[in-house]
Structure formats: C-alpha cells, structure tokens
User: Fold this.
Amino acid sequence: MKNIFLLGATGSIGTQTLEVIEKEKYNLVGFSAGYNIKRTIEIIEKFKPKIVSIALEKDFLSLKELYPGIEIHHGDDGLVKVATFNNNDGLLVNAVVGSVGLIPTVEAIKVGKSICLANKETLVIAGDIITNLVKEYNVDMVPIDSEHSAIFQCLNGENRDEVEKIVITASGGAFRDKTRDELVGVSKKEALDHPNWAMGDKITIDSATMMNKGLEVIEAHHLFNIPFSKIETIIHYESIIHSMVEFIDGSVLAHLGLSDMTIPIAYALSYPNRIMSLKKLDFDNLSSLSFSKMDYGRFPLLKLAYEVGEMGGIMPCVMNAANEAAVELFLNEKISFLDIEKIVFNEVRSCENINNPTLDDIIRVDKEVYSSIILKNK
Ligand code: NDP
Ligand code: MG
Assistant:
C-alpha cells in the first residue's frame, strides 16, 4: 500500500488524484486545501488522513476543534508540514496552482520524498535549483502534466543523445479558431470554455493565451535537460496525441490516450509500474488526428516563453509572476483578455535579469512582481 501526500486536494488535479487513490486503495496520509473548507471536511471524513493543512487561520481553528486527533496546519508553512511529514515516507503529489508550490517541493525533496509534479510553475521559476536537488537527494520526479508524462514515457529506455527533438502538442485553447482582432472584448466565460479538457480556471486561461504551452516548454527543458532549440510545439486539435519524440534515425514515438488526466496521474503514482484503467481509446470511433503549424504571431506569449527560457536566470520567474497576477485580474474581471499579454510583456521587458538566482531571489522577485501588478490594477 502506497502512502500519498497530496497538495491541492480540492482542485481539479487533486480531485482526480483522489479518484485514483480511492480506486487503487492507496493511503492518503496527508493533504492540503486552499479555501474550500466544505470539500476539505468531505475529504477528511472519507480518507481519514493524519495531517491536513488549509490556507486560512479561521478554517484552521475550526478544523482543530472538529478533529482533535488530526495534525492540522495552515498557510504556506502548513504546505511544507504536509510535504515533509514522516520524512522520506511515501510520495508527494504537488497539485497546487502557482508559485506557492515551489517551497513545499524543495523541502519534500530534501527529506527524500519522491515527487509527482502537476505544479508546473515550480519548474518554470526554479528549474535549475529543483533539478539539482533531485540529483543531490536521488529522488524520482515524475511529471503529471499530460505532455510531459507522454515525453517521459517516449524517452523511457532511450539514449538521450539520440533525440533529435521533442514535439509538444497543444489543443489551442478556447480561442484557437479566432483571429487576434476577434479576441478584443472576449469574456471570462468564453475564455473558460476549453474545447477538450476540464481543468482549474488558471490553467484554462493559460491555455487560451497559449501561456500554458510556453510554461510547458520551459518545464520540458528542465525535466528532460533538452535545449530550447530542440523543443517544438504544434497545434493538435483532438488532444489524443499528448506529445512526441523524434530520434536521429527519423523514428517518431508518440504517446496517445484519452484526454483524461487520471491516466497521467495514475502513471505517476504507480511508476515504474502501470495500473489498470477502464478508460481506453476507441480507435473505431477516432475519425482523424489533425495538426496545424504553430503561429507565433497569433500566440505571442508562447514566443516570449522561448525567449525568456533562453535568457534563463530570474526571467522565467518574472514572466510567471506577471502571468499569475494578470490571470487573477482577468478572472476578477479587472482587465481584458488581451491585457494579460500586455502586462506580461511589459514586466518582462522592464525587468533586469539576475543570473543564477538563489531560492531567496526567486521568492522575493515572485512576490514583488505579483504584488506590484495587483496593486497597479486595483
Ligand atoms: P485548481 O485551481 O483546480 O486547484 C488548485 C488547488 O490549489 C486547489 O486545491 C486550491 O485550493 C489550492 N490552492 C490555491 N491557492 C492556494 C494557496 N494560496 N495555498 C494553498 N493551496 C492553494 O488547479 P488545477 O488542479 O487545474 O491545477 C493544479 C496544477 O496542475 C497547476 O499548476 C496546473 O498548471 C497543473 N496542471 C493542471 C492540469 C489540469 O488538468 N487541471 C493539467 C496539467 C497541469 P481551494 O480550491 O481549496 O481554494
Ligand atoms: Mg499540459
């Protein structure tokens, strides 16, 4: 029986991870939630964990009273408490959204826990630090992001020197069929209407701006130690091929599956084994797999992510923090859809790089950039 610690249990990936845990009879030893106290109580009742953390102090106090036998924490420190509970025991599934996922990942690696990573922002803002820690502490880091799970599986047992390139597929998000002129004035509701995937709000907006693919390119660079010049992106409408790897001999390995996140989640949790799923691709009813060339003029944030990835240093952190703030403002209907990219471009263009940033630099710049954008648009 596997022991699992789950950060972000109340979210989209969190909920689907709980489905896998329940089906496989894994043991949920600890979890964290943000602001959803009702769902938190339901999860406690069902899974009977030993440690729980929640964002707000008032919810922490209520939970402490309700569950005196459970170790309860709150805030950012609470995430670390869950992530490091019982040291190297079990797996940490990091499914919180945003840069708040970074420190718990760092601390979990340091106590020797293996990581199943959905929280891509961790690798975007501190990829070099994280990959060095993974080597130093000799832990596994298995991606949950579907494209990276696909690449991880295509690279399994292959010689990395024989990789020609990796090709990350993109559905194109809610506005893939709109021109840039048609993006003026699009609503939050329209932006949240993803054609292929049901996900949390932030990543759904990131898909519509194509920032998500930009974050994924940087995530792939760190996870697979592949230069940006060997990472391509392509629009693939059906989200059936989750990504591909081309080798020097011209062979291309692709990973196919339903657009259902429980599949990469189950792979990460059961790695290096596989577990049974009833959710299978039905080739008889799969009429076509279609692709189109990525248009960087149409999706400037993706182009920016390549640029920022090449710059390295603190710049991916700046881009990510600006994007987190801008998406939050858009979701709160304070700015328009196209303002998201304006804000991210402005911030990246006006910041000076810091080479080889420390963890403290990253945490400081992340907070500074995020808060200044939120304040300016109050
Ligand atoms: P959701 O918004 O659905 O869930 C986010 C989770 O994080 C919730 O449990 C939320 O708690 C919690 N949370 C939010 N803010 C805080 C905070 N300040 N402190 C503690 N907890 C917090 O996101 P998703 O599940 O969609 O995404 C999670 C991560 O996985 C993201 O990094 C995303 O990019 C990545 N990912 C998601 C995919 C998907 O299909 N959804 C696919 C691939 C990657 P609460 O709800 O209680 O407030
Ligand atoms: Mg993805």
